[in-house]
Every structure is written in structure tokens, then in C-alpha cells.
Amino acid sequence: MPYGRHTIMNKCICGSIAVHNRTIVKGCKVDTKGIEQAVDITTVECKKCGVVRQIDLPFNSEKGFTDFYKKEYPPVKQAYEIKDYKHDRKVAALRCDAYNIPERVKTLDVGSGSGAFVDECRSRGIEAYGCEIGQYHYKNGDEFIYKQQFEDVNFPTDYFEVVTCHDVLEHVLNPVKMVEEMFRITAQEGECIIDFPRFYHKAGNHHWKGVEHIWYFTTEQLEKLITKVGFVVQKEEHPIESKTVFYLTKPIQKRVKILLPPGIGDCYWEIVKINAFLKQKNLGLPDIYISNRRNRHMNAYNRAVPFIRMFPFLHIKEEILDMKSSRENELIWREAYHRKGRTIFENILGCDYFVSHNGYLTAGISLEETDPDLKCDWFPPMFVSLEQEKYKEYCQKQFGKYIVFYYVFVGSNKVLLQKISIKEIKKITNSIVQKTGCTPIFVGGTWDREDKGLMNLISCVPNAINLIGETNLDQLFGLIRGAEMVYGIPSGLTIMSIALKQKTVVLWSDFFHPRFSVNICPPSTLRNTYFPVYTSEYSGTAPLIQLGVDLVKGKKIKVEEVKAKEVPLKLKEQPQPVQPIPNKDSKLVTILCVLKSGGDYTIEYVKRLKNMVDRNTTIPHQFLCLTDLEISSEICDSRKFKANYPGWWGKVELFRSGLINTERAVYFDLDTIILKNIDDLLRVKEDFAALQPWNLNNRLLGICASGLLAWNNGKDYSFIYKKFNIAHTSEYPKGDQQYISQALAKHGERYIPLQNLVSGIYSYKRNCRAQLPQDARIICFHGRPRPTEVIHLSWVKTNWI
């Protein structure tokens, strides 16, 4: 390659492009016989800071620089035969003696050359790694060497207790960037050791080399560079006259503290937004803490901590903060997770910020739509460890072509089994494996071993490899990267498979909002490498099998073949009207309530509910009370129970034939307070909508909450009433809401959560004790207290009349 003058080095490390006149310096290069020969080096000196640099270079871009060191360095290979691995190992031993690094200390050698220093460290029990792009013909091995440009590896922050750099800074295009990266990855109170030629000492004259060296710092200039980055100089030594060695420490850093929700998926959605947030707030690299409210073993440390460590622009603190530590924090958790409230909270559990977009995602709102001023980065830089790469290679060699399967049938995933049985999933799995010839590998956490349905499934799959609880996170990511496909249910594992652009099929149940499956993934992957499937949209297993087989075989998948549930790309906060109101006298909706004598509720509750409805809708409607009492027609229309079931079971009579003669029906529990306009609720067009339970266990069981219901009266739901048997109520310990939910499921129906369709619905107990949410419109009083018990509150007194 001809060595011409290029413009790549026009800019100095101080940012200045003004230079003195160029200077010709007498340097040297080594010929093919190892003999030094004089050579002219063209240099320029920065007018602003005085740094000298060479401008005659064999490359004119960053790519050219990388290619040069990968393909053509050392520049004269024969000349380097005067050196060998033994020579480098002897020098490495001297350095190790001087550094006195303890055993088991995690160490990185930046620009590790032949790897001799890494090997010497490891022979002494030090956990050493190297980073090198040059191709040294006499290297011993590279098992512990990252073969990438140092800044492109994305090592975790504060990762190495010791970082060394021997004779490297003079070679690189941007020494400031390299020192900044060394500072970031050095542990707080850790040590960095930089070895550099002593160019301006008579013993260092031979370091003025053509081709190789770009920067010719004085000792003072180099010290200024490294201290400006943040290092503290502990000592400066000259172990030989021609070299300067700086021993540096990284002081404890004061960083902004950010609290994130637990779990891989939850953290990933925040990471997508977090760089924009940091930039908006003008914040530096943050310390990340993990919040916890559920089982610590399952949801916090074992998932989120090693995952966040993979992102170089964050630093994970291995400390889990308990959101159940106070009532106030418990309410914040519920707001963050269960409703479209705030996404960013300040001063939580000693952290500057708690960030969570879960409430909006679960309500069907995308990350782009939520906090739109914070731009999403769906593919942030990530650290891929040597362990991850080696495990990927191991699996591909050991198992050939393989598919990763992830199934769990407990918790919220029980809802999946309402539409597709474990027997059918066995058939799908076996068929895909048989038709593709791939090895089936099952993965999951140690806690997943307790799922008997899963263990039974694996036992029925021939040649299955059970790695459940057998892989750490690095190994799991390596396994995913090397797979032909990942197939399973929604989880942090499958979400990250999507984010890694791996071919992925995810089976979704009706537990989730229809848009959730779309909103959690990078848009470019949707129906390209990622195929979300709603099991309720399929009849039979054939399409699910064919999708998996076609994806593994590389066939182009047509959207209409997938039959994936189509969802709008935009969702407005309040649905548009189903149709215009023909005239003020036509009744489109029947508003219902149920009053059973002998309980806490009276006719006064009925009057107040009717008044609140009338005040807060413009839609013509009929108000009807189903009761065993005599209610004056001046109060409202009423109908008597037929079966007159005890307690809450009277609610099933709402679905008896002939009770309602309008297009739509909306039911309110009597302990409901309406604050603002509810026209959009009365216009909800879904066949059957109900409250999503405030109780997590009920949500996981797929049970709706029956305190607020809306249904299409043109569709026959009389089976709910006809099939009810009062003698069998012991089968439904959760009451009428459990019976209604199961009756719907047996009839092939499902309920849509009203909170996903209508904003401003809140639980008094869960959301309103501390403060009434600004967008509140409907407040549900389930259990205690009753509205009468909080009548002293101004908003109750004003509206419940």
C-alpha cells in the first residue's frame, strides 16, 4: 500500500485544526532483515496545545485503520521474527512482577499483541483478558482475546479491577476516546496502568517510527490527557530509560441513580428510552438499581442485574430496592405498572428517578406514543462476552441445527391453556422438530422446573435437550444467537430473542392487550423475523406448525398466511363513536345496576348512580335497576328478579333473555362514583368488555372483575344465566365474576379489559387513597371502604349526589 499524506489526522486531540508548519523528523524503520534504517517522518505540531503527530499514514479512514491492523500489521512481518513469543512472555513476566496484581482479579490488557501478557497473568491465577485487532504470527493462542476494536467491544462499566495498556496509545487514531473508554471500564478505586514511549528522552529516539506511530506525546502532555479524563496519577516510573509507566486510579464516581422495574423485558423497554432521557435531562452515565415487589429470587437479581450489565452506557448496582417498603411506594408501583399514569417518578427509595412504561404498554400504548419526546433506540450497543460466543459455538457443534423452545404453564400463562392445550403444544413442538430435523432445546429458570406440565411435555419430545436452570444469562444469549429459531410464550427470553433479530414465534393469549405483542418489539422485526400469534385466532395446530417450519427453512412468510391478529399502528386515547346518534329520543344503551335487599346498599345508592350517569353522558339511554325491592318509577325503571338468587349471584340475571331491548348494555356496581363524561364507555363496541381485576391473582387466573361490564346485546349471552346452577356455587370461590369468566371461556368467548378501551378508570383502594388521579373519571369502590365511609372527601361529596 502506498503511504500517501491523508487528512484523517487534521484534528488534534484538543479539538484544534490549526497547526504550525509541518516538520520533517528523522526517524527509523526496520527492514526485512531486522536492521534499522533512517527514514523521514512528516509531522505537524498543534498550535494550541503543542502535541506532535504524524500525518503520512497508510490509511485515510477509521475502517482503513482497522483493516491495516487486521491485515497488514506488523508492517514488515519478517522484521518481527527477531522477536518471538518467548521474548514477549519474558517482558510480560517482568511487568507482572512490577504490577503485583493479586490472584482472581479481573484484568484487561488493551492492545494485547501476541497475548503473552494475558497468558502470563493467567499462569499466576489472574483472571486476565486481552483486546487486539492485529494479526500476530507468533501468538500462542487467543482463547481469552476479544478480536475487536477496543471501543467497539462495549465492555460493561466498572468491569475490570485492573486495566493495562502497553505501547498502544501512540498507534491509535483517537487516544482521548481510548483513555475515556479505559476510564469507563475500570472499576471505581480500580487501577489502570499505561506504558508509553519516552519520545523526548535520548534513550527513546528509536521510538520515532514511520508508519506505526501517530502521536508523539511528551510525558506532561500524556499526564494532562489522562487526568482530564478523570484518572488520578498515583505514580510515574521509568522501568527502563526509554519508557514511561503511569499508575492510575479511578476515584469513586458520583452518578445519577435510576430505579428500573425487575425482569429482562421490563428493563429492555426502559433501556430503549433511557439514552434519550439521559440526554434530555443532561445526565451522565447512571447507576441503575432494580426495584422489587414480588419474589426476589425469580424477578430481580437473577434476571435484571446480569442483563443490564450488558449495556455499556449503564452501570448496574447489585442492590435490590423493595417497593413494598411503604404504602406510598406501593401506590407508585401500581401506578407505574397498572395504569396510564406517570412514567417517570422522582426521589424514590433514595434514587433520583424511577422509570417505568409498563402501565402504558399493558394498556396497548406503544413506546413511541408514550413520552414521544424520548426517541426509542431499539438496538442499543450491547456487550457480547467471550463466554457467550464460546457457548454459541459449543451448542452449534454439539447439537447441530437446533431450535430453542421456551414454555411455562403457570401464572399468567395459564390463560394460554384456555385456547390451546398442553397436548396441542406437544404436537406442535414434535411436528416442527420432525419436519425441520432440528434438535429441540428447552430453556428456562430454575423455578420453571417446578412446572409439572412443562416437565411432562419435555419428556414426550424425542431427543429433547433439557437446559432448564442449566444456563446463566451469557450462555442463554449465546444459545439464542446460534439457534435456527426461538419458539415459545411471552417472556424476557423471547422478547430479547426478538431484539437480537433472531427468528422468533411467540404464542400470545388473551391475557394481554391485542397491541401489546406489537408494542414490545422493534418495529423493523415485526413479521420480518418476529411473528406474534394469538392462539384464539387459530382453529387447529396446523398453521402454528407450518409457520415454525417455514421460518426455519427460510421461506418468506406472508402476513395473510400467518393470520396474526391485525392491530392498528395508532391508538387514540378514546375510541371514536361507533355511529352518530340518530336523534335525542332514540335509546342506544341500557345502563343497569343490581340492588339486592338485606345488604349494605339501599335505594339511595341507585338514585345517586342514576344522577351521576345522567350528569356525565350526552348519549340517550335507559337506566334500569334489577332488584327484589319496590322502586318508584320517578327514581328509575326497574325489573324484578326471576330466580332471586342470594347475594352477588343475582348479577347473572343481567343476561336473561328479554331484559334489555337496546343495542348495548353497560352495568355499574352501586359502589361506583362517576366524575366526568363517560360517552366513550357507552360507545364501546367490543362484544364483551369488563374490568381487568385489581387483584393480581385474579388477573393471572384470567378472571374478569364484574364491577363494570359492557356488552353487545345483539349477541346472545343468555347462556350465562341459563347455565347457572345455584347448587354449584362452591366451584366458584371468587364469586359471580369467576362464574361469568368461565362461562364465557367455555362458550369460546373472551372479555376485553375495559381499562384498555377507556381511560380514567381507577380503584379507590389501589389508586385514590393518597391522591385522586388527574384523569380520573370512574372510581370503583370494591370491598371496604364504601362511598358512605369517605363522604368527607371533597371529590366524593361533590360527585356522589
Features:
Rossmann fold; 801 residues; seven-stranded mixed sheet; single chain; 28% helix; elongated
Structure description:
The chain has 25 helices and 32 strands. The protein is of the alpha/beta class and 801 residues long. The chain folds into four domains: 77-249, 3-Layer(aba) Sandwich (Rossmann fold), CATH 3.40.50; 257-362, no CATH class; 386-562, Glycogen Phosphorylase B (Rossmann fold), CATH 3.40.50.2000; 589-799, Spore Coat Polysaccharide Biosynthesis Protein SpsA, Chain A (Alpha-Beta Complex). Strand 4, helix 3 (116-123) and strand 5 form a beta-alpha-beta unit.
Task: Give a short summary of the structure.
The chain is an alpha/beta fold.
CA-based gyration radius: 34 Å
Strand order of the largest sheet: 6-5-4-7-8-11-10
Helical run tally: 25
* Percentage of residues assigned to helices: 25-40%
- Topology, number of strands: 32
Total domains: 4
Which class best fits the helix and strand makeup? alpha/beta
Text of the CATH class of the largest domain: Alpha Beta
Shape: elongated
Percentage of residues in strands: 15-25%
Low-confidence stretches: 1-7, 30-35, 76-80, 296-300, 560-586
